[in-house]
Design a protein that fits this description.
single chain, 19 strands, alpha+beta, five-stranded antiparallel beta sheet
C-alpha cells in the first residue's frame, strides 16, 4: 500500500518553523471566526455559566473493569471538555472576561484528573495497563496517550493560546500548570515511547494513529518551543501517518465504514494541513493520488442526503463535517468532493466538536454555504481493494434504485461478519438495511465481540446453513471477485466466509442493478442436504402479496423463489437506538427457508 510521505520523498528536516514563526503565519493562531457560527458557541457557553462541573468519581472509573459499562464515565468526562471548548472559544471571541472564572474552574478540574486516558483505553497506559484506578505517575513514569488524552492536550493548548492573557490575570500559576501538564502528559510520552497505535511495531493501524497524531501535531505547533522537539515530532508523525495510509486499501476505501471516516481519513487530512503549515508549505503531499482517493471515499458511499452505506460499526445516518470535506476537495483538486462537502456543510452542525481542535478552528472560520446544490454521483463505483460496489439507477442521488454490496474479509477494522451482505434503498428510502452497531461496552472490542447480535452474519443480509453463519477472521473472506465494467455485474465467491461445519463447498453470489431493478442471485453447493435460511433485515413490516412476492418499504416489491418458506420476526435490537436511526422502535428479520444440497435462487427488487 501507499506510504505517501516516503513515496514523494518528503522530508521535514530543517524545514519546521519555530513556534514564533508558526504563530505569526498560521490561521490556527489568529483565526477570524464566522459570526453566525460563533452565536451557537456563545449561547452554549452562556448555558454553562451556572452549570455544575461534572464529578468524576473513582467508582465511575472502575465501573468499566467491573461491569463493562464505559458510558457512565465517558459522558461526564466528555461534558467537561464540551464546557471547556465552548467557554474557551466564547471568551476568545468576545474578549470581555465574562466567561473567565468558569473557564478557569473547568481547566482546573481537568488538570486535576489523575489521567486523561479513559478507563476503556487503560491498556495504553505504559505504567500499569491493567489497573482498575489511574496509576501513580512519578517523574520517570510515562503517561498513556489514547484518543481522549490527545484531544484533551490539544484542547488545553488551544485554550492557553487563545486566552493566555485573561488566564494570566486570573492566576499565572494556572497558565504555568496548563503548559506543564500538557507537555508532561502528551509531548514527553510521545517522544519517549512507541505506542501500539502508531504502527511502528509493524501492526496494522486504524483511525487512532491519524486522530492522535493530528492532536499531537497541534499541541507541538502551539506550545513547544524547542526546535529539536518540533522537528522530532513532525518527523515521527510523518512516519506514523505513512503507517496509517499504507494500512488503507489502494482505492482509498475506509474498511471501518463511513462513520469512522471522520476520525480516519479526515484526521489524516487535518494532520497534513498542520504539517504543511508547520513547515511553511515545504512538506506538501496533497497531490498524491492515494490522498485524493481517501477523501473521495466519503462521497462515494453516500446514498443521498444523510443516508450512508453503513457497513462495519456505523450508523446509517449522519452529516459528516462538510467544512473539512470542502477543504479536502480543494486541496486535492476534486470538484466532486468539494461539491459534496459544500452540500454537507449546509446541513451539518455549525458547532464543531472538541476532539480535534485544529480542525474545529479551521471550520469556524468558514461561513455556512447558502448556495449548496444536490450533488450528482457516478452511477457505478467499484472499489476493487475494499471490495465494495455502489450502484445507482440515477446520477441524481435522490432518485431511483440504489444497491451496495461488499466482499472483503471478516477481520476488517471494526469488523462485522458481513462478507457478501448488501443494502437496498429507493429514492433515499431504506428497503433492505444494515442494522448498524450498538453502544460500546467492554465486550465490543474484547473476546466476546461476536456474541453481540449486530456483529454476527445472522443479523446481516446473508444465509445460514443448519444455523451456522459466517465466522470472524481474516481467512474468512470473499474469493473470485469479478466486476464486469460493461454489464456492472459483480460476482463474489462466499464459500470461504463460512467455517467447514457449515458444509459450504461453493457459494457464488452475484449482484446487478439494471435500470430500476436490483437482483441478488445465489448459487449454492453444499456437502449434504441442509437447511438454508436466507435472512434479510428491514425496518418496516413486509406485506405478503402472494406466493413469492412481498411489498417492502418505499413501494418496493421483493420477488423470490416461492419454494422458500417465508416468515418474519419482530426484533427489538439491544442498545441500537432504532428510533433515531430508522424511525421505528423495532426491526424485522425476514427468513426464507428451504432444505437442499444444491440450490439456486434470485431476490429481485423493483418499484411496484
Amino acid at each position: 500500500m501507499y506510504k505517501v510521505f516516503k513515496e514523494l520523498g518528503a522530508s521535514s528536516a530543517g524545514k519546521v518553523l519555530s513556534r514564533e514563526e508558526f504563530l505569526q503565519n498560521s490561521i490556527l493562531a489568529k483565526p477570524e471566526f464566522d459570526d453566525e457560527k460563533m452565536k451557537y458557541i456563545i449561547e452554549e457557553a452562556e448555558g454553562y455559566l451556572e452549570a455544575d462541573i461534572p464529578f468524576l468519581p473513582l467508582c465511575g472509573y472502575r465501573e468499566f473493569k467491573i461491569t463493562g459499562n464505559r458510558s457512565n464515565f465517558q459522558q461526564p468526562y466528555s461534558k467537561r471538555r464540551d464546557m471547556l471548548f465552548a467557554l474557551s472559544l466564547a471568551e476568545y471571541h468576545e474578549g470581555k472576561g465574562r466567561f473567565a472564572s468558569k473557564l478557569a474552574d473547568v481547566i482546573w478540574a481537568i488538570l486535576e484528573e489523575s489521567t486523561w486516558v479513559v478507563p476503556a483505553h487503560a491498556v495504553h497506559n505504559p505504567t500499569n495497563p491493567s489497573a482498575d484506578a489511574p496509576p501513580v505517575y512519578n517523574e520517570s513514569d510515562l503517561h498513556g496517550i489514547d484518543l481522549y488524552a490527545g484531544s484533551t492536550g490539544a484542547l488545553l493548548a488551544m485554550t492557553l493560546h487563545f486566552n493566555r492573557e485573561v488566564l494570566e490575570s486570573f492566576s499565572p500559576f494556572l497558565t504555568e500548570r496548563i503548559e506543564y501538564e500538557v507537555k508532561k502528559r502528551i509531548i514527553k510520552p510521545y517522544i519517549s515511547n512507541v505506542f501500539g497505535w502508531s504502527g511502528e511495531y509493524g501492526s496494522r493501524c486504524n483511525n487512532w494513529c491519524a486522530w492522535i497524531n493530528d492532536n499531537i501535531l497541534y499541541v507541538t505547533a502551539m506550545l513547544e518551543e524547542r526546535a529539536s522537539v518540533r522537528e522530532f515530532v513532525v518527523a515521527r508523525a510523518m512516519k506514523q501517518l505513512d503507517n496509517f495510509s499504507s494500512s488503507l486499501p489502494a482505492d482509498g476505501g475506509c474498511d471501518e465504514g463511513p462513520g469512522y471516516w471522520g476520525a480516519a481519513a479526515a484526521a489524516y487530512f487535518s494532520s497534513l494541513e498542520t504539517i504543511y503549515e508547520m513547515t511553511g508549505g515545504a512538506v506538501d503531499v496533497f497531490s498524491h493520488s492515494h490522498v485524493k482517493n481517501m477523501g473521495e471515499y466519503i462521497a462515494k458511499v453516500n446514498i443521498n442526503d444523510d443516508n450512508f452505506v453503513n457497513f462495519a460499526d456505523c450508523s446509517p445516518k449522519m452529516y459528516p463535517n462538510g467544512f473539512l470535506i470542502m477543504r479536502y476537495g480543494e486541496r486535492v483538486g476534486s470538484e466532486f468532493l468539494f461539491a459534496f462537502g459544500k452540500m454537507m456543510a449546509a446541513k451539518c452542525s455549525p458547532r464543531p466538536q472538541f476532539r480535534r481542535p485544529s480542525g474545529a478552528i479551521r471550520d469556524l472560520t468558514m461561513p455556512i454555504p447558502k448556495d449548496a446544490l444536490i450533488t450528482k454521483a457516478d452511477r457505478f463505483t467499484w472499489m476493487p481493494a475494499l471490495k465494495v460496489l455502489v450502484a445507482r439507477e440515477s446520477e441524481d442521488t435522490s432518485k431511483g434504485m440504489f444497491l451496495a454490496i461488499k466482499g472483503g474479509h471478516n477481520k476488517e477494522s471494526h469488523n462485522h461478519n458481513d462478507v457478501g451482505s448488501y443494502v437496498i434503498y429507493h429514492s433515499g428510502e431504506p428497503v433492505i438495511i444494515d442494522a448498524g452497531s450498538v453502544s460500546y461496552t467492554r465486550d465490543t472490542f474484547g473476546k466476546n465481540r461476536y456474541t453481540i447480535w449486530c456483529m454476527q452474519s445472522h443479523y446481516h443480509n446473508l444465509p445460514a446453513f443448519d444455523g451456522v453463519g459466517e465466522h470472524n477472521g481474516i481467512e474468512f473472506c470473499s474469493t473470485r471477485e469479478v466486476y464486469d465494467e460493461d454489464s456492472h455485474l459483480l460476482t463474489l465467491g462466499l464459500e470461504k466466509a463460512y467455517r467447514s461445519d457449515a458444509g459450504v463447498i461453493e457459494y457464488t453470489r452475484q449482484a446487478l442493478l439494471d435500470g430500476g431493478v436490483a437482483t441478488v442471485s445465489d448459487d449454492i453447493h453444499l456437502d449434504s442436504e441442509r437447511e438454508i435460511d436466507f435472512r434479510l433485515m428491514t425496518h418496516r413490516m413486509p406485506e405478503k402479496l402472494g406466493d413469492g412476492k412481498l411489498m417492502l418499504n418505499a413501494g418496493i416489491v421483493l420477488e423470490y423463489d416461492p419454494v422458500l418458506e417465508f416468515s418474519v420476526e419482530e426484533f427489538d435490537p439491544p442498545m441500537a437506538n432504532p428510533e433515531q436511526r430508522w424511525g421505528t422502535p423495532v426491526l424485522y428479520r425476514m427468513h426464507f427457508v428451504t432444505k437442499a444440497k444444491d440450490y439456486k435462487c434470485q431476490f429481485k427488487y423493483y418499484k411496484a
